[in-house]
Write a structure and sequence with these properties.
With about 100 residues, the protein is α/β, with parallel strands linked by helices. The protein has four helices and five strands, in the order βαβαβαββα. The protein has a five-stranded mixed sheet.
Length: about 100
Amino acid sequence: MLDLDLPGPILIRTNFNRPLQWEGLCAVLLRSRPGGARPAAIIVDDPRWEDATHDEIFTAVAGVANPLIVVADERAFDVAGLRPMVLRPRRERIPAQPLWRLLAA
């Protein structure tokens, strides 16, 4: 179970082979909006989540009302433009820039 003290989207790192891509993804997702506001995202950067399955991730966030789960997996780092997987409302991949708009909403 994850310790989810903050409201907001949850970014879970499941691939630890690409530290520069991870840093780039975090930079895009946590960039300040015009006016200085930042999204209240929960960043999970713990090696125990390496290669976690979707079922393991959903189990970890059980009980959190309507979580927006973003997974930084191997494919996210392999695809040009960083395409993390969004697990809510359905499993879909979107580029980080449009994802920023979801996080800031």
